Amino acid sequence: xxxxxxxxxxxxxxxxxxxxxxxxxxxxxxxxxxxxxxxxxxxxxxxxxxxxxxxxxxxxxxxxxxxxxxxxxxxxxxxxxxxxxxxxxxxxxxxxxxxxxxxxxxxx
Length: 108
Ligand SMILES: [Zn+2]
Known about the structure:
Number of helices: 3
Largest sheet: 3 strands, antiparallel
Structural class: mainly alpha
Strand content: 5-15%
Radius of gyration: 22 Å
Helix content: 55-70%
Shape: elongated
Number of domains: 1
Order of helices and strands: HEEEHH
Distance between the termini: 77 Å
Bound molecules: zinc ion
């Protein structure tokens, strides 16, 4: 193996690593975008209890924010942050409920 071969091999490997990182990052962005949509759907649904501030429940509803590549919930009125997003928020519960309500409305 010549020096040039070695350089080509190393740059090829580095290229693949960079490609992998780029794909992983864009995947994460897509997932976070979907997570934020789900949270907003839940917070605006009106028929489920919205996620509220852990310090003062009279504060406005928590809002999703992206921080260090992760989605977290922040209180707009104070510094309260909730890192855990309840699984039911990320489920299709709100959408299913809306679909059923819609079906009922067209059958009545
Ligand atoms: Zn608060």
